Amino acid sequence: MNALPQLEAFAVQAAEGWLMLGNALEANEELEAVTPEYRYHPMVLAMRWQVYAAAEWWEAAWVVARALCEVVPESPEVWICYANTLRKYRGLLDARAALNDITEKFPDDAVIRYNLACYSAQLGQLEEARSWLLKAFELKNADPLKMAAVCDPDLQPLWERIGHGSVVELECHFRCFRESNL
Predict the structure, then answer these.
(1) What is the pLDDT at residue 175?
(2) How many CB atoms lie within 10 A of CB 152?
(3) Which of 15, 27, 53, 134 would you label with 140, given CA atoms 20 to 30 Å apart?
(4) Tens digit of each residue's pLDDT (9 = 90 or more) over 38-56
(5) Cα separation of 41 and 29, whole Å?
(6) Does residue 4 have a pLDDT over 90?
(7) pTM for this prediction
(8) Domain extents for the chain?
(9) DSSP symbols for the chain
(10) Architecture of domain 1-91
(11) pLDDT tens sequence across 75-124
């Protein structure tokens, strides 16, 4: 996709600045400066999604996430964004279904499988959660996910079933792994 012209790029940067200051309304106003021709540019849509998510305007965020999936369907990140928005807007079942539908499209994406594990754990489907988590951990670049999994509240039901001792053991293993790779 083409780069944004200077005016539009500045509007996106200004919106990002307002978001960093915690002001989603001003961030949204900055994006209004983007000309209609560039409103569907991936960078503009991604910032608009961030603004709507920060403001917890989930219906609007869902519309933008769907647009992102149409504009850059080859990006697993936009599908994850879409699913996370669905989770807030329509619930866990819809979010899980959205990611289930694209797992084959992105066979090497650990984050998709990790999120499926989180959704499944929250739905009380712990064997499915465990299966997705193991699949995520088998893929490349899963080490940050292994670290996050230990403290992720979405996975708490899984850890409670496995037992606290296993979580402590996992945490120790990941800490040792991290220290050996520094």
Answers:
(1) 52
(2) 17
(3) 53
(4) 999 999 999 999 999 999 9
(5) 17
(6) yes
(7) 0.84
(8) 1-91, 107-182
(9) -PPPPHHHHHHHHHHHHHHHTT-HHHHHHHHTTS-GGGTTSHHHHHHHHHHHHHTT-HHHHHHHHHHHHHH-TT-HHHHHHHHHHHHHHT-HHHHHHHHHTTTTTSTT-HHHHHHHHHHHHHTT-HHHHHHHHHHHHHSTT-HHHHHHHHH-GGGHHHHHHH-HHHHHHHHHHHHHHHHHT-
(10) Alpha Horseshoe (1.25)
(11) 999 999 999 999 999 999 999 999 999 999 999 999 999 999 999 999 99
- C-beta separation of 39 from 7 below 8 A: no
The mean-pLDDT minimum among 30-34, 53-57, 80-84, 163-167 falls in 163-167
Residues 27 and 19 sit within 8 Å (Cβ to Cβ):
yes
Output the CA–CA distances (angstroms, integers) from residue 89 to 44, 149, 165, 177, in the order listed. 21, 24, 35, 37
CA distances from 173 to 7, 74, 167, 176, 178 (A): 49, 35, 10, 5, 9
* Rounded Cα gap, residues 75 and 58, in angstroms: 21
Residue among 63, 29, 22 at smallest CA distance from 45: 63
Is 86 in contact with 98 (CB distance < 8 Å)? yes
